[in-house]
Amino acid sequence: MKLKHLFLSGLLLLGAAACNDDNDTPVFPEEPVYDMSGFAKGADVSWLTQMEAAGIRFYDADGRDTECMTLLRDLGFNAIRLRVWVNPEDGWCNRDDVLAKAWRAHQLGYRLMIDFHYSDTWTDPSAQFKPAAWQGLTLDELHAAIRTHTQDVLNALKTQGITPEWVQVGNENGPGMLWDTDQALSGATYDVQSDGITYPANPTNFAAFVTTGSRAVKEVFPDTKVIVHLQSGDDNDLYHWIFDLLEENGAEYDVIGMSLYPDADNWQTMLDDCVSNMQDVSSHYGKEVMVCETGMNWDEADASLAYLTELLARCQELPACLGVFYWEPQCYAGWNGYFKGAFDDSGRPTIALDAFKD
Q1: pLDDT (tens digit per residue) in 266-315
Q2: Angle at which helices 267-285 and 301-316 pack, to 10 degrees?
Q3: pTM for the complete prediction?
């Protein structure tokens, strides 16, 4: 009885402490308010579910085990980017995996970018290979496959009440997309040589593939902005070459996306060139721009902080720039051979990500 009395007395004291002086209404700590609007400060976390399945954990600056997207939101991020592969061998980044991550991001209030690779694996300047199931399709069938795959993923998101703000129709497409050894089917922008095989140029197809993807997006989400994304955001000649090809062939898109991956010893020059490129192409083509991917080696955190701080500041000064996305910032300890994440070997964010807080 005595223990019970002490317990009840303690509860009464706690209740009194939680009330204000004017009434008996309990006073609870306020939940933090996150402003997820405005300039996009994004993170591509496409590896996240795969990392979690491997037992990778994430920790805040004080060492508290914290869910990754929650931690990134606390660090100032307001948008998430997720890549989509058609039929990846291990299942990661397929439609269902993307839906699972998108739902988590949506629950936390994030805005969303979807990045279609139109492949079963990575597409980038060295590889723009068709999905295995699309090999041997006619040109009309390829267009149908682009439309079906794009809308399959987007309609699944729509069913969950999720509307992506941006969609990439391809990834780092400097060399085009959906390469084929038959020129009539190829979407290469030049005669690509890969492993002794030639994939001939057909910029007309490339532009048409972009338009098919763009129209597929707009049929599901009319207000979503469609991005064409290239590598090497500091290379103005590359951007004029590719976007001239797209303009000449009537491609439909809204935003010019860029990647930029500097090192500690060259970031200032690359940043200057990238900002100049953004100013030029946004004016020349009448398009908005965005840094869809960036990063620097995790162990160059001081330089990375300086770079990211200036990148974010200068991009926000450009009326045409919509945002900046860090590529896989949650990666650490050389995950999948990638060292440009922004977490240290203990699984905590480095000071580089302080740039996103303001």
Answers
A1: 999 999 999 999 999 999 999 999 999 999 999 999 999 999 999 999 99
A2: 20
A3: 0.91
* Residue 322, phi then psi, degrees to nearest 5: -90, -25
Q: Give the H or E element holding residue 4.
A: helix 2-17
Which residue numbers are catalytic? 172, 293
Sign for the CA dihedral angle at 327, 332, 334, 339 comes to positive
Determine the residue type at 44: D
Contacts of 83 (CB under 8 A, 6+ apart): 44, 46, 93, 98, 115, 116, 117, 171
Q: Which of 84, 282, 95 is nearest to 168 (CA)?
A: 84
The CATH number of domain 40-356, selected from 3.20.20.80, 3.20.20.70, 3.20.20.60, 3.40.50.1110: 3.20.20.80
Would you list the domain boundaries of the chain?
Answer: 40-356
Phi/psi at 41 (5° precision):
-115, 95
Cα torsion through 147, 292, 84, 151, rounded to 10: -30
Residue 95: DSSP 8-state: H
Which residue bears the tokens 């860029």? 258
Residue 39 token pair: 């300039």
The kind and range of the H/E element at 285 are helix 267-285
The amino acid sitting at 213 is: G
CA distance 224 to 217: 7
